[in-house]
């Protein structure tokens, strides 16, 4: 099973797969959304990352009238390359450039699940093109990975997010990147732009406290804790309903 795609874009020297949906027959500038998948976990190996996200992008385009882009980060799906934290940040920056080149959106909003959400906030904080950000089950930090970088590296190899023999050229630099990006600090810098933070109160992978910390650091975030929901909020219809409602309001507020 591979990621659903209808195109590619460049991130540095790498080719990444993407899926772009636009409303039928649109003629004027649209708000743009980029959906970022998380780090592969559990039974999902790196090749399957983001597989079902294209369906959500179709829904956002057709029901809400947005230009909707999702893609697979380096080391995941059929995209080239190997996982690194800086590499994923570079990929998202390249995705924003790509969306701007393709549809000239009237503002960009980032939505991310898990690690994708945490890094989306880090990128958004320093990019004025990003008008709002929505996080699903996001981490507040990467301290557990940074605390045992060799163990995390071996895990990334086992699930296929790192495939190239001899990668990385510098393990010390690769591991330092795990501490370089701090979502909590990014939340402070991102304020007062709109931030939606959602978390399941039965999340078995990332504590709901992480979302509370992110919301508090931002200061005016909309925090929604989904009762009885686990880690994969992407598959919880209540969470998707909240997300779509928030996006609809964003378009009204930015008009």
Structural commentary:
With 255 residues, the chain is of the alpha/beta class. The chain has one domain: Alpha/Beta hydrolase fold, catalytic domain (Rossmann fold). Helices cover 41% and strands 18% of the residues. It has 9 helices and 8 strands. It has helices spanning 53-64, 85-103, 115-125, 143-147, 149-158, 171-180, 183-190, 208-218, 237-254, and strands at residues 7-11, 14-21, 32-36, 67-71, 108-113, 130-136, 195-200, 222-226. An 8-stranded mixed sheet has the order 1-2-4-3-5-6-7-8, with helices on both faces. Helix 2 crosses helix 3, helix 3 (115-125) crosses helix 7 and helix 7 (183-190) packs parallel to helix 8 (208-218). The longest helix is centred in the middle third of the chain and has 19 residues, at 85-103. It is globular and about 50 Å long. The model has no long low-confidence stretch (mean pLDDT 92).
């Amino acid at each position: 099973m591979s990621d659903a795609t209808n195109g590619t874009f460049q991130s540095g020297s790498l080719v990444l797969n993407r899926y772009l949906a636009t409303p039928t027959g649109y003629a004027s500038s649209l708000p743009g959304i980029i959906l970022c998948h998380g780090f592969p976990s559990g039974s999902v190996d790196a090749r399957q990352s983001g597989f079902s996200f294209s369906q959500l992008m179709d829904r956002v385009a057709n029901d809400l009238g947005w230009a909707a882009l999702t893609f697979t980060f380096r080391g995941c799906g059929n995209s080239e390359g190997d996982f690194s934290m800086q590499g994923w940040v570079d990929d998202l920056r390249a995705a924003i450039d790509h969306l701007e080149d393709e549809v000239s959106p009237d503002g960009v909003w980032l939505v991310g699940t898990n690690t994708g959400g945490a890094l989306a906030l880090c990128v958004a904080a320093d990019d004025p093109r990003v008008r709002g950000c929505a996080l699903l089950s996001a981490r507040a930090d990467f301290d557990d990975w940074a605390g045992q970088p060799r163990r995390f590296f071996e895990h990334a190899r086992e699930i296929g997010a790192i495939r190239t023999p001899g990668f990385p050229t510098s393990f010390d630099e690769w591991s330092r990147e795990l501490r370089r990006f701090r979502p909590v600090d990014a939340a402070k810098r991102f304020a007062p732009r709109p931030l939606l933070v959602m978390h399941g109160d039965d999340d078995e992978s990332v504590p709901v406290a992480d979302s509370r910390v992110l919301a508090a650091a931002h200061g005016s975030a909309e925090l929604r804790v989904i009762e009885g929901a686990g880690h994969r909020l992407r598959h919880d219809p209540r969470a998707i309903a909240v997300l779509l409602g928030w996006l609809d309001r964003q378009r009204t507020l930015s008009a």
